[in-house]
């Protein structure tokens, strides 16, 4: 009996997992924000707020009079929109977390909250019935569908509460009219939600296509690189038959082959980054210290000075589940960004300017990538892990760190960044340690070669 029970339980669990895996491609696009707000889009919406509210005050007061209007309320709402236009902190690109919060609150106050208030204050008449219904659809297009869903619920409740406390006395609707309004609002809410989900999914598919194109372009670069490798082999063969020029030709061939290796490594990195939206399963049990040592040793440094500044320090090793190939690309991305930050400083490179450390903290595996580069601004840090957001707009496409975060999250971990502009940056990766090795490994005081 117990064996039969556990067999049935096992089969049921497998069916649940299979169903969850089947639904994942459908649900994942709905549950993940993709793009950061567009500056032009925010400005256009703010201009609509600034101009629209005074304009409708004039229309509803002088041309098509409504039961309730308030000039000071209209001007206050208009001022909220104006604040988003004139504040440099709120219009910076990429927007900071503070800016995103303020923008979200302003649109919530000016749309669901204010429109619900006016709907009740005007006795739920035909004009404001239609206006509030339109607001449902507008709000879902103005902001993310998750924010819109929560915002509409909070706006309806908040607007009704304000009306109950401070609103004018109005004639109540009949039961049939109230039910009619509820049905129409429910339909508008549902369509707004569906359109929001559809837009999110469309943006995701567009990004997948763009990333796929990037991967194809990177792959096509291998053909001229293969030609360069053949030229290097030909130069090396010529050096063998020309003793007087052998040294120079051998050096040229070595440089050509090194360039081909480095370019192929960069192509591998870009192709892997192009898998941002669909990562393969991560089920390998790997050693953190071993993976990082191999990644740092194999990294395509531009010169020997870069190689010497990188150090690996292992206090206590641990193992975790991931894809070794994908996590190696995570380390490559972080090392590449750190070396770029170091190259932007005027100081000469020295050993220890870039340190990758491995340790255990309270049973959690911790990997730190610390550099003494130019650092990252607070504004850039707030959205650093979002696709197409880069702290280095001149050379970065903004996919590397987004890819890193997705791989680390898939491994059950987290990644955070701490930085002081001008003093460097530290990326901290925390991972669930499967096997722990409490004995201290020798700390590497020299660079990895």
UniProtKB/TrEMBL annotation:
The keyword Membrane applies. The chain crosses the membrane at residues 40-60, 72-91, 98-120, 126-142, 147-167, 179-198. It is an enzyme of class 2 (transferase). GO terms for biological process: osmosensory signaling via phosphorelay pathway. Residues 216-435 form the Histidine kinase domain. InterPro entries: BphY/WalK/GraS-like, HATPase_C_sf, HATPase_dom, His_kinase_dom, Sig_transdc_His_kin-like_C. GO terms for molecular function: phosphorelay response regulator activity; protein histidine kinase activity; protein kinase activator activity. Its EC number is 2.7.13.3. Keywords: Kinase, Membrane, Transferase, Transmembrane, Transmembrane helix. It catalyses: ATP + protein L-histidine = ADP + protein N-phospho-L-histidine. It comes from the Bacteria. This is histidine kinase. It comes from Ramlibacter rhizophilus.
């Amino acid at each position: 009996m117990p064996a039969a029970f556990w067999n049935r339980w096992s089969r049921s669990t497998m069916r649940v997992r299979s169903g969850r895996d089947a639904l994942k491609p459908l649900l994942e696009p709905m549950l993940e924000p993709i793009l950061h707000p567009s500056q032009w889009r925010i400005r256009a919406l703010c201009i609509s707020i600034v101009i629209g509210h005074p304009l409708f005050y004039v229309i509803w007061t002088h041309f098509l009079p409504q039961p309730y209007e308030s000039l000071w309320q209209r001007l206050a709402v208009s001022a909220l929109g104006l604040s988003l236009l004139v504040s440099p902190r709120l219009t910076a690109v990429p927007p900071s977390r503070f800016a995103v919060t303020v923008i979200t609150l302003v649109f919530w106050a000016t749309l669901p909250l204010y429109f619900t208030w006016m709907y009740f204050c005007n006795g739920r008449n035909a004009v404001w019935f239609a206006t509030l219904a339109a607001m449902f659809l507008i709000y879902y297009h103005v902001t993310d569908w998750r924010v819109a869903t929560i915002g509409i619920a909070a706006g309806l409740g908040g607007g009704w509460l304000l009306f109950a406390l401070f609103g004018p006395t109005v004639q109540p609707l009949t039961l049939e009219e109230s039910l009619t309004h509820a049905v129409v609002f429910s339909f508008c809410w549902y369509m707004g939600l569906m359109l929001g989900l559809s837009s999110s999914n469309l943006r995701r598919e567009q990004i997948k296509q763009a990333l796929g194109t990037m991967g194809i372009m990177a792959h096509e670069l291998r053909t001229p690189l293969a030609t360069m490798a053949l030229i290097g082999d030909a130069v090396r063969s010529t050096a063998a038959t020309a003793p007087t020029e052998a040294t120079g030709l051998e050096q040229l061939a070595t440089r050509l082959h090194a360039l081909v290796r480095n370019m192929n490594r960069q192509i591998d990195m870009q192709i892997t980054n192009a898998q941002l939206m669909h990562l393969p399963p991560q089920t390998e049990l790997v050693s953190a210290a071993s993976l990082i040592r191999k990644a740092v040793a194999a990294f395509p440094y531009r010169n020997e000075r870069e190689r010497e500044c990188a150090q690996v320090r292992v206090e206590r090793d641990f193992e975790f589940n991931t894809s070794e190939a994908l996590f190696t690309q995570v380390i490559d991305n972080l090392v590449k960004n750190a070396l770029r930050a170091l190259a932007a400083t005027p100081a000469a490179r020295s050993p220890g300017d870039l340190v990758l450390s491995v340790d255990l903290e309270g049973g959690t595996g911790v990997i730190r990538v610390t550099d003494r580069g130019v650092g990252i601004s607070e504004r850039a840090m707030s959205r650093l892990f979002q696709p197409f957001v880069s702290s280095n707009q001149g050379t970065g496409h903004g996919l590397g760190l987004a890819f890193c975060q997705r791989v680390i999250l898939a491994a059950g971990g987290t990644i955070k960044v701490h930085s002081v502009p001008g003093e460097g940056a530290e990326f901290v990766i925390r991972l669930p340690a499967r096997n722990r090795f409490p004995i201290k490994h020798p700390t590497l005081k020299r660079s990895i070669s």
